[in-house]
Amino acid sequence: MSGLRLASLIVATSSICTLPALAAAESSYVYCDNGMRCFKAPCESSSALDLVTGTIIKGVSIDTSGLPQADKAITDQSDVLYSGKIVVRGAIEQRTQTITGKDYSLPWLAATRIVRTAKDGERKHCSSH
């Protein structure tokens, strides 16, 4: 087997092995403000429903910096994001945040695109639908 052919095979095998891990990291979520208000950080005033697992992640913040420009424009000009009206694609990440001098590991939804309009049943965890 030639060196070039072997290198191509190794690259292809490595790519195939890492694809499932990357795909598993992303899911579809309905993110919203759940109506809770708190007086002490961290606060669980937002939640996200993972549409694949049905898990509700409480206290999650959202990072929209990874959205395409057209999707950012949609979320910037209305309440669709915070009222749970859209489904976003992304991944939950744990990020460290310092709040009043104390470090917290908090969940963040790193959104990568808007998928579609959320269905009424997908918005049940939101405070108002």
Helix-strand topology string: HEEEEHEE
Largest sheet: 6 strands, mixed
Structural class: alpha+beta
How many individual helices?
2
Question: How many E-type strands?
Answer: 6
Mean pLDDT: 80
Tell me the strand order in the biggest sheet.
3-2-1-5-6-4
Cα distance spanning the termini: 61 Å
Estimate percent helicity.
Answer: 10-25%
Computed CA radius of gyration, to the nearest angstrom: 18 Å
- Spans of at least 5 consecutive residues whose pLDDT stays below 50 are 3-24
Which percent band covers the strand fraction?
Answer: 35-45%
Task: Tell me, briefly, the overall form.
Answer: globular
Task: Walk me through this protein's architecture.
This protein is an alpha+beta fold. It has helices at 3-25, 69-76, and strands at residues 27-33, 46-50, 56-58, 61-63, 86-99, 102-117. It has a six-stranded mixed beta sheet with strand order 3-2-1-5-6-4. It starts with a helix and ends in a 12-residue tail after the last strand.
Summarize the structure.
The chain contains 2 helices and 6 strands. By secondary structure, the protein is of the alpha+beta class.
Tag the structure with descriptive keywords.
alpha+beta, 129 residues, 24% helix, 6 strands
